[in-house]
Inverse folding.
């Protein structure tokens, strides 16, 4: 389902359940990434040091970032990588479901996003992405948010982030890129073992997204894939061979 409004399960500031999140089915090897892009009215402002509005700069940077998934899929064909795309203003829209990486679907969704308009529902977007990550069927879960402003609609992103960290028991990793806004406004993400990077212009945005997506998310996923594709007794076999060699030495 593409281009659909995503109704979050906890509107406003209603008390949330305290129980641990449970997946909708069995989970296996793989990583799921929910990319969440700010599409509020302020994204129509011109990017610093650029002749383009911030929303165009952001969409181009995300497309460039996603190209790293191609090389990952080539080197780790047995490790499933699933990517979904969301954008938010006053409401949250799921543009691409969290499914096996589909370069064409993601690029088409980025190019067909509507013009920026409305408020900034960061907390609701986090909640929507989290809900879908638990339907993705893989163990590793990530949310990557690109935003240029503070929350103005729906639930508080700090409360939602803390709830996600608590109820997922750290299984959902959260990353924020603060585009042309003070990164300290999202310092709560660091409190829940996430990461926040600032980006003042187009070049810095690309660099920050690359640091998080390729340097953190894909690197961690690749490390897991390499460890899990090794034969289970490889280290033991090496140790036995080494011990035998030492035993034969005079």
């Amino acid at each position: 389902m593409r281009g659909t409004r995503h109704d979050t399960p906890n509107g406003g500031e209603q008390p949330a359940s305290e129980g641990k999140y449970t997946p909708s089915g069995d989970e296996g090897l793989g990583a799921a990434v929910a990319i969440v892009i700010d599409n509020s009215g302020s994204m129509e402002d011109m990017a610093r040091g650029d002749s383009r509005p911030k929303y165009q700069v952001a969409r181009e940077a995300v497309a460039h970032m996603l190209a790293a998934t191609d090389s990952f899929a080539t080197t780790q064909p047995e490790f499933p990588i699933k990517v979904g795309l969301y954008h938010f203003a006053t409401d949250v829209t799921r543009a691409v479901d969290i499914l096996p990486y589909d370069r064409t679907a993601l690029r088409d969704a980025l190019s067909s996003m509507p013009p920026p308009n409305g408020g900034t529902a960061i907390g609701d977007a986090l909640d929507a992405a989290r809900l879908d990550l638990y339907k993705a069927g893989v163990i590793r879960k990530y949310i990557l948010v690109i935003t240029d402003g503070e929350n103005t609609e729906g639930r508080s992103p700090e409360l939602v982030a803390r709830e996600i960290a608590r109820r997922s028991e750290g299984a959902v990793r959260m990353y924020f890129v603060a585009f042309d806004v003070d990164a300290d406004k999202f310092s709560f993400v660091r409190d829940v073992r996430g990461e926040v990077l600032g980006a003042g212009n187009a070049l810095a945005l690309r660099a920050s997204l690359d640091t998080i997506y390729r340097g953190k998310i894909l690197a961690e996923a690749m490390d897991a894939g390499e460890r899990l594709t090794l034969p289970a007794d490889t280290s033991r076999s090496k140790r036995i061979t080494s011990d035998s060699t030492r035993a034969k030495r005079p």
